[in-house]
Amino acid sequence: MQLLLIEDDRSMQTALQRALSRHGIEVSICADGAAALEMWLQRQPDVVVLDLSLPGLDGLHVLERARRAGLRTPVLILTARGTVGDRVIGLNSGADDYLAKPFDLDELEARLRALYRRLQPADTSASPSRQRLGDLEFDKENGAFYLGDEVLDLTPRELTLLQALMSRPGHAVSKERLFALVFPGDDSVQLEAIEVVVYRLRKKLSQAQVSLMTLRGLGYLLKAAP
Q: Alpha-carbon distance 207 to 44, whole Å?
């Protein structure tokens, strides 16, 4: 799960990022209301946790602008404003759930996973066995990539990298996330090693109708070529 945490309290940021990361949730943080919308658009998270009391732009205004911009990401409001009236206002502004501070971490995680499950297909067995992007095709049954009728010759690391990017086409995947997938548990390898794998994969995709883009500060993105 890719989570965007919009919260200006440093201690809360740290506590939630550590706790949720231990349960397999990748947390991005934004502390300023005015910057939150831009990050929301760039990262396209699965779920957003939004505090109401933010510098620059109040959380309710962030939510209202996001909904007007067509962002349909599930939002859980997390705030010290716990009255019934505040909850009604938040839900009417486009929030999907509301949790007042102080809260239980297990309850927060359960609510986040419930929101995330809403995004998943109701019947995954009915999903097609092949995924296509441009002229690149991924066969989910055998784990191979094809360009036309030819199998794309990839090393295990290149294959893992391309699968991760293909799982979120058009969305940035962080360098740290890709590194953890491509070099699992290898403490002898530096983070920059992922750039070498990206370089080699990009060369193998040079004739394909897809682009492997580097987004400074965000990671890498795979999209169909224009």
A: 28
Q: Which domain holds residue 177?
A: 125-224
Question: Do 112 and 214 belong together in one domain?
Answer: no
- Domain count for the chain: 2
Which has the higher per-residue pLDDT, 185 or 146?
146
DSSP string over 34-49: HHHHHHHHHH--SEEE
Same-domain status, 143 and 220 = yes
Q: Please give the pLDDT value at position 128.
A: 64
Strand residues in 22-153 grouped as ranges (E): 26-30, 47-50, 75-79, 97-100, 130-133, 136-139, 144-147, 150-151
pTM above 0.70, yes or no: no
**Which tens digits make up the pLDDT trace of 157-191?**
999 999 989 988 888 888 888 988 888 877 788 88
User: 121 pLDDT band (50/70/90 cuts)?
Assistant: low
Q: How far apart are CA 37 and CA 41, in angstroms?
A: 6
Where a domain ends, among 81, 99, 117? Answer: 117
At 105, which CATH number?
A: 3.40.50.2300
